[in-house]
Each structure stands twice: as C-alpha cells, then as structure tokens.
Amino acid sequence: MIKRFLIDPVFGIAPPGLVLPPRERAAAAPGQGRDGVSTGFAHLVEPGAVDLSHGVILYLEDITVSFDGFKALDKLTLAIDVGELRCIIGPNGAGKTTMMDVITGKTRPDSGRAFFGQTLDLTRLSEAQIAHAGIGRKFQKPTVFGQHTVFENLELAMKTDKRVRCSLFAELDDQDRDRIADVLRLIRLDGQAQRQAGLLSHGQKQWLEIGMLLMQEPRLLLLDEPVAGMTDEETERTAELFLSLAGKHSLVVVEHDMAFIKQLGGKVTVLHEGRVLAEGDLASVQNDPRVIEVYLGR
To answer: What share of the chain is helix, strand, coil (3-state, %, to 5)?
Structure first.
C-alpha cells in the first residue's frame, strides 16, 4: 500500500513563506465543518507527486544567484499557473537563462525558494530528479539523434527504465506505438516517421525535440528561443503547436520574436537585471516606458 501524506492547509495556495494577495489568503483559509470543526483544504498526496490542487505549477520567491559578485538574479519572484503559456522577454543579461537553470537544478540559488507545485522543493532536487518529476527543457539549438529515424528518436526519449539491460530487451507494445503516433501527429511529422532526423529542416528538428520532451510526459515545458532560425511558415506552425499544448501542459517560452509572442497571446513577463520589470499582456508591456527604455527602444 502506497504511503500518503497530508498537506497542511495553513500554507494556502503556496509553500510556507510565499506572500499571497488578500483575496487568495481569504480563499485559502480553513473552512468550518459540522459541529464547528475546521475542515481546511487538506488532501492526500502520494510521496513525490506534484500537488497542483491550488492551480499554480511553479513558484519562485526571492531567488538570488550571484556569479563573482554579479547578480544574475536579484530576488526574482514569479508564479506560473497550471496550463498557462507564459512568455519571458528581456535584454541580454536579464537573467532568463539563469532562471531556467535554477528551475531545472543546473544552478543552485544563493537564496530564495523554488517550488514545483505545492510541495516539491526544486532547490533540494538533482537535475535528474527534477526532469523525472515533470519539468522538461528545450535549449535553443536542437539536439536530436541525427543517424536515427524520427520514430526512433521518440522511442529513445520515451519515459521508461533506461538501465542497459532493460533498454536492450525492451519491446514496444501497442500502447507505446500509439503514444508515438499521437506525438508524431501533434508535431506534424507523421509523414516523416522513418526519415533520418539529421535530414530534417531546422524547424522540423525543433518540433522533433519538442516531441521528444513530450514523450517524457512533462507537466512544465521550458522553451528557449524555439523559433530562432525558423521560416515564417515554421514559426506560425510552432505557435499553433504551443497553443495546442497549453492547458494540457504549462509552457514557459523565452523569446525575442515579438510577432511570435503576439501569436501566442497570454501574459508576458519582462526581466531586467535579474528582476521582474513588468508583467501583463503584450500590448501593455510594449507601451510600458520602462520596457521601452531598457529593451524595446524608442
């Protein structure tokens, strides 16, 4: 029998210490059951599971990272909702890459808190543990297995036992093949399944790598400049892909292409000098004098 844990309702919708707006604090307060007994919002969660019961998948609070005295992140605070598609923009050196490094465990913060869901403290987990928990990251340059077919790339990426003996003797069942077929259709490479990945166009390689991440069944996808180097048609198709993923997954997209960001819609966060400078829809951000001064230009 799987042991389960009870989540303390006093934390509301955030880990202990994270400040909540008044309305959310009120909503998070324990309720009253029969006989005046406090019922709260406690619930059962399996050990290691991601608790998304309060609708927020990622919390960063006062994250600070310094390199040789330079603050790459300076008390960065950010929250991403479950199923949200969030775009992150900002000038070079704003802290975008360091932020993703902290989320994935590549860089440990000097101070601050980073939670995946309600309970998983990312600062205490290794990169492998974070990936297994459900955070996938795509770097700007696609990294696929060029000598293998598109289908084989997705098969290799599947979330299975990766020990040598298990890998050597593993065979795909019908369910696995159906999963790969579904991802192939989603990334629009179902007609390229038996083609060598090294022969794909740049945009197709980007889609394949996104498909490889999806085979890992991530809840949160971090995507670094995904449309850099793409044609206009590929960029448009990528926007359609991301919009189809939002809701089923949470996406954080770091990008400079404003036309692409406009296609995605949703909230935009502007980073500058390791902090959140502005946040809102694209139109409001583009008209913010601070953003114009430090990033967009006049």
So the answer is: 40, 25, 40
CB 215 within 8 A of CB 183: yes
CA distance 103 to 60: 9
Give the integer Cα–Cα distance in Å for 188 and 251. 19
3 state SS of 256: coil
Instruction: List, in sequence order, every residue forming a beta bridge with 116; answer none if it has no partner.
Output: 58, 120
- The number of beta carbons lying within 10 Å of the beta carbon of residue 232 is 10
The token duo for 217 is: 């069944």
- Whole-number Å distance between alpha carbons of 19 and 121: 17
DSSP state, 32?
B
SS3 103: helix
Confirm if 40 and 31 have CB atoms less than 8 A apart: yes
C-alpha to C-alpha distance for 94 and 277, rounded to whole angstroms: 10
List CB contacts of 22: < 8 A, sequence separation 6 or more.
none
CA 291 to chain centre: 24
* Range list of β-strands (E), 44-161: 44-45, 56-67, 70-81, 85-89, 111-116, 120-121, 135-138
Distance CA 85, CA 154 (A): 24
Query: pTM for the full model?
Result: 0.81
3-state SS class at 138? strand
At 239-257, the pLDDT tens digits run 999 999 999 999 999 999 9
- Please list the rounded mean pLDDT of every run of 10 residues in the chain (298 residues): 34 38 43 41 56 89 94 96 96 94 96 93 95 92 92 87 47 89 96 96 95 95 94 95 96 95 95 96 94 82
How many residues are recorded in the chain? 298
* Average model confidence (pLDDT) across the chain: 83
Nearest Cα to Cα of residue 110 among 60, 58, 59, 71? 71
Residue position matching structure tokens 């290799």: 156
